[in-house]
Design a protein that fits this description.
The protein is of the alpha+beta class and about 200 residues long. The chain has four helices and eight strands, in the order ββαβββββαααβ.
Length: about 200
C-alpha cells in the first residue's frame, strides 16, 4: 500500500505519479479516491508490444479468495496476438487501508469504476484508461471488503493476510490465478480513449 494517498490526486500524462516507481511489471490497486486506481509499472526494458497491449488491449479481471484475503488477476489481450498477452496480480485487503480509504464505489448497475494508470521506468504516467469491473467480480470484492473490515479488528490480520497471499501466489503464475478464478469479468471498454505520451 502506498501512503500518503491524498483523496484528490491529479494525474497527467507525461508527469510523475504520486506513487513513484514500482518493481518491473508490478501492479497495485490504490484506494482512497473517488474510484480505485490500478497502477501498472512498465519494466525498465520493455518488449516492443508491452505498451501497445496495455494501452489498446482488452482488459479482464478474475478474483480468487481464501479466508478474508482476495487476489485479483488483471488480464490484457489484443485480438490475434496471444503471445503478447499480459497478466498482473494485485492482493486485496481493505483492512490494510486507512479507515477513510476503506470504501468501494459501486455503480447502480453493480459494477465498480476503475482508473488504470500506466507508468514508465521513471514513475511518469504514460497512459490513462478508465473502465468498470463487471458486476460478478465487484460483488465478490464488496463481500470480501466487508469481511476484511471486520477482520482488521484482529491484531494478527495483516500477518495472516500476507501469509495467505504468499500461499495463493505460490500456486502458479498470474495467468494461472486468472484461469482458476472463482469469478471473471471484462473491464468495460474505456469511457475515453487511452492517452499516450
Amino acid at each position: 500500500m502506498f501512503h500518503p494517498n491524498p483523496p484528490a490526486t491529479l494525474l497527467s500524462v507525461g508527469k510523475p505519479t504520486p506513487w513513484g516507481r514500482l518493481p518491473d511489471f508490478a501492479a497495485t490497486l490504490v484506494f482512497g479516491h473517488a474510484t480505485p486506481i490500478l497502477v501498472i509499472q512498465l519494466p525498465r526494458r520493455e518488449r516492443g508490444t508491452d505498451r501497445d497491449v496495455l494501452i489498446k488491449g482488452a482488459i479482464a479481471v478474475g478474483i480468487q479468495r481464501e479466508g478474508t484475503s482476495a487476489l485479483l488477476a488483471w488480464y490484457w489481450s489484443l485480438p490475434g496476438r496471444p503471445s503478447d498477452d499480459l497478466v498482473f496480480d494485485t492482493p486485496f485487503h481493505l483492512g490494510l487501508e486507512a479507515p477513510g480509504h476503506r470504501k468501494l464505489p459501486v455503480s447502480e448497475d453493480g459494477t465498480m469504476p476503475v482508473i488504470v494508470v500506466i507508468q514508465d521506468k521513471k514513475g511518469r504516467c504514460t497512459a490513462l484508461r478508465a473502465g468498470s469491473v463487471g458486476a460478478e467480480v465487484t460483488a465478490h470484492l464488496v463481500e470480501a471488503g466487508q469481511q476484511q473490515i471486520i477482520d482488521a479488528r484482529s491484531a494478527d490480520f495483516e500477518l495472516r493476510h500476507r501469509r495467505t497471499i504468499k500461499m495463493m501466489m505460490s500456486l502458479g503464475s498470474p495467468l494461472y490465478i486468472y484461469e482458476q478464478a472463482i469469478a471473471r469479468d471484462n473491464v468495460a471498454p474505456p469511457s475515453w480513449d487511452a492517452t499516450q505520451h
